[in-house]
Amino acid sequence: MTVSSSGNSSLVEERRRAIERCIDWVETYGRQRMEEDGSHHDYPHVLKLDRIEFVTTTSSDSDKNAAPMVGLFAKESIRKGDTLVTIPEACVLSESHPLLMDLARVCIDSAMKAFRDNLTTQWKQKSNTRNPWNSFANEQSQGRVLCLDELRLALQLTLLVYAHRVKASIGGTLGDAATHFKSYLEALPPSYESLIFNWTDEEMELLKGTACHAVALRLRREVEENWEQSFASVLEEYLQQQLQPNDKVDSTLLKESYFHAICSIYSRMHSLDAANFASTTVTAETNTRTLCPLLDMLNGDKEYSPRCNVHVLHYPGIHVAVQATRDIAKGDEVIFSYGQISSQVFVTKFGFVPVASTTGKPLIDGLDVVHVVPPPKLVWEEGDERRWKSLTSDKNKVLERRHLTEFPPEDGTPFAFMGSPIDMAKVRGSESWRPVYLNNLHLYALFSLSNDDGAEVVVEPFEPGSIILDMIDYRLDQMPTIDDDLVSNASGNKKTAILCRMLEREILTMWRHAIAKQYECYGETSPTTGKKYLPLRGQKEGCAVCQTAFSGPLKSCTRCKAVFYCGRGCQKEDWKAGHKEACKPVSS
Ligand SMILES: C[S@@+](CC[C@H](N)C(=O)[O-])C[C@H]1O[C@@H](n2cnc3c(N)ncnc32)[C@H](O)[C@@H]1O
C-alpha cells in the first residue's frame, strides 16, 4: 500500500481523529494496568505510539466517497525483537470480556439456537448431505462465512454497533459495553467497500470464471439468509426488551449494524490461543476469537512474503503485543502475515490480491486454487456421488468433493483444484508422479470414458489427457485474457478481480503445459474444440515453451537471444524439440 493524499478529506480527518481517541483509550487502560499490578517490570506497556504512525493509504482511491483506509508505518527505524505497541486485555473485544459475558447467555445463545434449528431444517430437506451443524459445532466453518465462535462474536458486535449508534437509549450490560468500547467502535472504517459482500454487480461480473466467483456468490447469499432466517428476530426481540417502553427498534439500522459487524469480524478478527487466554473470568471453553484495537489496523500479506515484518504475541492476563520479526526501516509499512491462505481466500476474505512489489503481478504459491470444470459435453448429473465412490482405490473411503477442494465452484459441478508450481515441475519431469488432485482429475476423466449409462457424451479419441486439457481450456475460455493496460487502468475492486483472473490464467497455463507433457498430447488436436494443444510458440510474451508470463523473470537463449524461457527445464525441452537446428548465434 502507498501513502495517499486522495480520498474524501473530511472522512479521512474524521477517521484519523477517531484512531487518535482509540490510542488514548488504549493508553489509559495500559497505564491503569501498570498501576494496578506488579507485572509491568517483565511486560511493560508500550504506551506512546512514538515509533509508528497511522497513515491513510490509497486502497480506496477509486471512489472518493469510499471509507478511508489506514496502514501502520514506522516513524523511525525499528530493530528486530522490539515491541511496537501493546494492547491491554481490558481493551480486547472477545466473548469472554467481563462486560460481554452476560450478553452471550441472554441473547447470543438463543440467536445461535435459531440458526442451528434452521440449518437442521434445511438439511432434512436435502437428505444426501451430512448435517452441516455437526462440523460447524466442531469449530470448522466448512465453507461458511464465519465459524461458530466468530459468528457469536459477530452477533455481539452487531449489538454493540447498534447500541453505539442509537446512543444512550439502551441500558444495562449492552449500554456499559458500548460505552467501554466506544473509542474502538468509532475507529473502525465506517464501511467496507472492498469486501466481497459489498462488491457491485459490475465488479462481480469481472470476477466471473475465477475460483472466487461462485464462492463469493455463496458467501453473499449466506450472510443475507442468516440474517433473514435466524438472527433478525432474536436480536430485535432482545433489543426491544432493553429499550425504554416507548422506543422502537430500528430494523434498518440493526441490519446495517449486522452487515458492518460481519465485515469487521471477517476481515479484522484475531484468534488468540485458548490455553493462553487467562483473563480471570475465562473458563476453558471460552472462545478466543477477538478484535484487538489498533492491532486490527495492520495491513497484511501472504505468510512468507518478505514484506511481513511483525508478529503478535499474547501475554495472558496482561496484554497482546506486536513485535518486529525483522529490522524495519524508517518509513516502511508495518505488515503482518494474514496466514497461510490462498490468493483466492485473500480476495473473498480481505478484498485484495497480494502482489509482488517488483512486478505488481500476483504472487503465486501452492495454495492458490483453480477449478477445472468439464466442458459442457462432460456434465455432472444428479446421483454422480455414487460414481465418485467407485473411483477411490480404498473402497472403504468415500471420495467426496471436499477432498478435492475447499471451494466448490458451483453446486453440483465436478471440479479439482490445482496449485503448487513445485507439483507442476514434478508432473512435467515424471511420467509416474501425479499429485492427488491431478489423480482425481485423471480418474474423473477415465470414469467419463468408461461410463456406459449414457449420462455423458464423450467424443473420440477416448483419452484422459485430452479430457483434462479440454477442462482446462474450457476454464480459460471463460476468463478472457488480460493485457497490462487493462491492469494499469483499473483500480479498486475492478483491479482485484482482474488480478485474480490473471493469476488463475497463469496457473492454468502452467498446468496445461505440465499435463500435455505428461500425457504426451503436444500438437494433438482437441476432440471437442478442434484446437491444437500447446502450439510451441503461440504467444509473443512469456516462456516460449510453457507460455507462463509472470512466475519469474524470463531468460533468453544465451546463443541467439531471440527466444525466452522461464527456466532451464523449458530451455532444454525446446532445444531437443528443434531449437537446436533453428538457433543462430547473435553475431552470425
Ligand atoms: C485488518 S484490516 C487492516 C486495516 C485496514 N486497512 C483499516 O483501515 O482499518 C484488513 C483490511 O485492510 C485492507 N488491506 C490489508 N492489507 C492490505 C494490502 N496488503 N493491500 C490492500 N489492502 C489491504 C483490506 O481491505 C482488508 O480487508
TrEMBL record:
Organism: Seminavis robusta
Signal peptide positions (record): none
Protein name: MYND-type domain-containing protein
A Pfam short name: zf-MYND
UniProt key word Coiled coil: no
Keyword Metal-binding in record: yes
Keyword annotations: Metal-binding, Zinc, Zinc-finger
GO MF term list: protein-lysine N-methyltransferase activity; zinc ion binding
Residue intervals of the MYND-type domain: 543-583
Domain SET: 50-339
PANTHER family noted in UniProt: N-LYSINE METHYLTRANSFERASE SETD6 (PTHR13271:SF34), UNCHARACTERIZED PUTATIVE METHYLTRANSFERASE (PTHR13271)
GO cellular component: nucleus
Superkingdom of the source species: Eukaryota
